[in-house]
Design goal:
alpha/beta, Rossmann fold, 5-stranded parallel sheet, 14 helices, flat, hydrolase, RNase_Zc3h12_NYN, zinc ion binding
């Protein structure tokens, strides 16, 4: 299968090196269409066309390809700037780790799962805050699982330790929640935690609004990090809009009225009536008057007369 695909794309004029690279990344079972799309995305162009293009002033390009210099530059920019529209992510490491460890163990794997979830979405600014004492060997009263993950994340400049020290044998710990909220607020990002930070909300009214609007809660379902699809409730933004700096508003989809033409709600009806193009302007009574040909003003005078004092 590998050889037949290699031959097929070689006949199209693509270089063996590029084809092998794409097949490695997509897997040997990848469809030919997907391989072709990836070759085009890479900016690879058939060598035969390239050699023909050199002498002539107009450059020949594979059909559907964006391999002219402005096009490839634009594609490159798009890849590098894909994170520009995504909000920075600040993760409450202790909260996530304890949630994954069922509130009994500080599970570092939970932090890794959360980081991977945001990475896959394209977020480039991800910071995890964990108290420094979590670096120490685990004690019986505070067990830690997969502690090496913290070291790996620290090397990648994702994990940040909040300061702590020992004074006369007692541990003095700086409040890590303050770091989390402060950094997320300054970066205009999102806080990932199931904590509500009520003490910090009461301390600073600006932080209160920020925590209410930018706190992303989550669950772990069979080692899968799952934030809700509606982080601010049923009437709030979708998850993708919540994590985006430039939210995309959905087009309003009007639901047709179940009563159709028999509806008697008039302009108070919240449903869509295709037979009433100006439904917001006319009540049912006015519609009937319009059909008979009575001016609305006359109808209203009659209503006033018939109305008891």
């Amino acid at each position: 299968a590998h050889q037949s695909k290699l031959d097929f794309f070689c006949k199209l004029g693509y270089g063996k090196q590029d084809i092998c690279k794409v097949l490695e990344s997509l897997g040997q079972e990848a469809l030919e269409d997907d391989v072709l799309k990836e070759l085009i995305r890479m900016g690879s162009k058939p060598q035969a066309l390239e050699s023909q293009a050199q002498p002539s002033p107009l450059k020949l390009v594979a059909r559907g390809s964006c391999s002219t210099s402005p096009g490839s530059k634009w594609l490159g920019d798009d890849d590098s700037d894909s994170s520009d529209h995504l909000r920075p992510i600040v993760i409450d490491g202790s909260n996530v780790a304890m949630s994954h460890g069922n509130k009994e163990v500080f599970s570092c794997w939970g932090i890794q799962l959360a980081v991977d979830w945001f990475r896959e979405r394209g977020h480039t600014y991800i910071k995890v805050f964990v108290p420094l004492w979590r670096k120490e060997p685990p004690r019986q009263d505070s067990p830690i699982a997969d502690q090496h993950i913290l070291e790996d994340l620290e090397k990648q400049s994702i994990l940040v330790y909040t300061p702590s020290r020992k004074v006369k044998g007692k541990r003095v710990v700086c409040y890590d929640d303050r770091y989390i909220v402060k950094v997320a607020y300054e970066k205009d990002g999102v806080i990932v935690s199931n904590d509500h930070y009520r003490d910090l909300q009461n301390e600073n009214p600006e932080w209160k609004w920020f925590i209410e609007q930018r706190l992303l809660m989550y669950s772990f379902v069979s080692n899968r990090f799952m934030p809700p699809d509606d982080p601010l409730g049923r009437h709030g933004p979708t998850l993708s809009n919540f994590l985006s700096k430039k939210p995309v508003l959905p087009e309003p989809k009007w639901q047709p009225c179940p009563y159709g033409k028999k509806c008697t709600y008039g302009n108070k009806c919240k449903f869509y009536h295709p037979e009433r193009p100006h439904q917001a302007q006319l009540s049912v009574a006015d519609e009937l008057r319009a059909k008979i040909g009575v001016p609305p003003s006359l109808g209203k005078e009659e209503e006033k007369r018939n109305r008891p004092p």
